[in-house]
Amino acid sequence: MSEAWGELKARLEEIRDLGSAQKLFEWDQAVLLPEKGGRARAKAGATLEGVAHARLTDPEVGVLLGELEGDDSLPDDQKANVRITRREYDRATKVPPALVKEMAELQGISYQTWTKAKPKNDFKMMQPYLERLVELKKQEADAIGWEGERYDALIDVFEPDMTTAEVEKMFAELVDGLTPLAQSILNAAGEKPEFLTAPYEEDKQMAFSHWLCEQIGFDTKGGRLDQSPHPFTIQIGPGDVRQTTRTEPNTVLDSIFATLHETGHALYEQGLPEELEGLPAGTVSSLGLHESQSRMWENQVGRSRPFTEFMLPHLKDKFPKNLGSVSFEEFHRGANYPARTLIRVHADEVTYNLHVALRFELELAMFRGDLAVADLPGAWNDQMESFLGIRPETDSDGVLQDMHWSIGALGYFPTYTLGTLYSAAFFDKAEAELGSLDDDLKKGNGSRLLGWLHENVFRHAYLRAPKEIAEDIIGGPITAGPFLEYLRTKYSEIYDTEF
Ligand code: ZN
Fold first, then answer.
1. Both 324 and 471 in a single domain?
2. Catalytic residues, which ones?
3. Which of 196, 279, 307, 398 could be bridged to 392 by S-S, CB 3.0 to 4.6 A?
4. How many domains would you assign to the chain?
5. Which of 95, 115, 145 delimits the end of a domain?
6. CA of 217 to the centre of ligand 1 (A)
7. Cα dist. 386→16, 353, 361 in Å?
8. What is the 4 CA–ligand 1 centroid distance (Å)?
9. Ligand 1 center–CA 233 separation, angstroms
10. How do residues 77-102 score in pLDDT, each as one tens digit?
């Protein structure tokens, strides 16, 4: 082992351990922390973050990277660690401290303002903050550097190497095919099945979720499932992957599909190669790839005919009063019931990505200077009407619904759709190679699919760029085709109509 690598590795491990403590804080805050502890915890978190930032930006790290970048004899995993650390180091050192400080303060105030502006339906309150955030994000992008266009620098944080041009093309193709398809499916949907909204005991929902995630391969010796209002998954450290789900008193499907979604994220984290453990090359490389896993277990698996057939008898056991007389056909239709909604987080599999496309188009236009922040609410409402045929009556149900923009999280939304498109393309490929998975899923057995994911996705961790991992599986750049075809086939069968 080269001396420089040994030194860098020790530093990376220290940064990782600080990050691990921060992540435990984050999990604790969402799951256990008493309300009054929030303020002190935020301060403790900021202290840890400051220490980790100082460790990463230590000029000695730059010196070590320079030395290691010239060393061709390094093994591939070390080369990958050097490459990823260079990315992080450059991002952390190129942005001037004054800009980092102003951004952090602005994000705090802006988020606080959003929590008041949304219930008051008052976009004007948010407008000056959004205008300044967009301005600072432009400065940040320029400091980091970009080649094609500025927005590339924003996407790159979440989706290394993906460009605006590629993402724009992907959305254009998706919107083109999905807008008319969604309209026809929505028109065919009919009445909402009654069992979808009825009282379901929440402790039984949790018991079902615990059983379900283990059933499809979640290792409870290497992780936990708990409850939080916004489900999420976080890897605290090797052997400790925590996921959360939520329950609602008047529906059961929300908790089931939230659990399947988060289990998809968790299986990926648990499946990362042990030999790369704890260093940058051993992590998940992109949000899009992460989301491909959650969406696959939630939708391609969870909402499929064979898997809903597997789940129903188990659910009938738990909830005989609500589901005793529900037929399999009714249940499967209910699990795939689409509806026009103004709110993204309530959207179904058919319409969800139109909500995302709307956000992507608007934030890109805003960032390019083609759309003034002041005109955002109107542009939002027009676009919603053209995609889904419904128009928000208030900004609370429109442009103010998500918190993302209030904290300057630009470039993040596209990863949701990228994940959706990947999930459909990957699942197709898995079945092309393994044969139909229907019989496995009818028995609730995900092991062959999981084995395929290990081989094709998990094994590569961050040794390679995410785009490369995906394109190797798909055989070229991602397109909307497989996802559109998946929806068309599934809904043609459900509603017995050719879409
Ligand atoms: Zn997710």
1. yes
2. 262
3. 398
4. 2
5. 145
6. 18
7. 46, 14, 13
8. 37
9. 8
10. 999 999 999 999 999 999 998 999 99
